[in-house]
Amino acid sequence: METICSDYCPFEQISWLWYCGGVVVSFLAGALWYGFLFPKTWMKAVRYECACGADVVNGEKCTCKSRGVFLTMLFQFISTAFVVFMYFVLTPISIWLSVIVVVAVCAWMKSNLKFQISNWKRYITLALIDVGYFFIVSVIAVLFSLI
Fold first, then answer.
1. In whole angstroms, what is the distance from residue 98 CA to residue 93 CA?
2. What are the residues whose beta carbons fall under 8 Å from the beta carbon of 140, sequence distance 6 or more?
3. Which of 121, 143, 120, 117 is nearest to 29 (CA)?
4. For helices 95-116 and 69-93, what crossing angle results, to 10°?
5. pLDDT of amino acid 5
6. Which residue, among 95, 92, 98, 97, has the nearest Cα to 9 in the 3D structure?
7. 3 state DSSP class of 55
8. Could you tell me if 8 and 83 are in contact, meaning their C-beta atoms sit under 8 angstroms apart?
């Protein structure tokens, strides 16, 4: 059987138990971040619209049936798993490589938002929330990969 790596293989270094723990903790951090800490601020910044027209930001209940919520959460969980996996591969090679990736992706996310949002206050709010969440997930993943 042929191996993916020749001399050094970071895949062999991965603790799959800690990896699964890192994915779950990161996903739960997202639920806390967007569900309890910043839900209204984030919805206002992204100009969230309920399909039935309810103004959720100002306290109205979204009464329409949410379609695709399970699928959306599944995709988010898979995305989180890939981000955590990236750090589980990079960190054993070099923690500085992981730090560079954190800084680079955070900077890219921030600048990408600027192309989408012209209102400065809305841009800063959304950048702090979204980039902040990516930073938190990255820190969680790097810490779990060091265990």
1. 9
2. 22, 25, 26, 29, 84
3. 143
4. 140
5. 65
6. 92
7. coil
8. no
- For residue 135, the tally of other CB atoms under 10 A from its CB is 15
pLDDT at 144: 97
For residues 124 and 16, the answer to whether their CB atoms sit within 8 Å is: no
- 76: part of which helix (H) or strand (E)? helix 69-93
Q: Which helix (H) or strand (E) holds 85?
A: helix 69-93
Name the residue type at position 82. F
What average pLDDT score do residues 59-74 get?
82
Sign of the Cα torsion 95, 99, 104, 105 reads positive
pLDDT of 26 reads: 97
50 — pLDDT class (breaks 50, 70, 90): confident
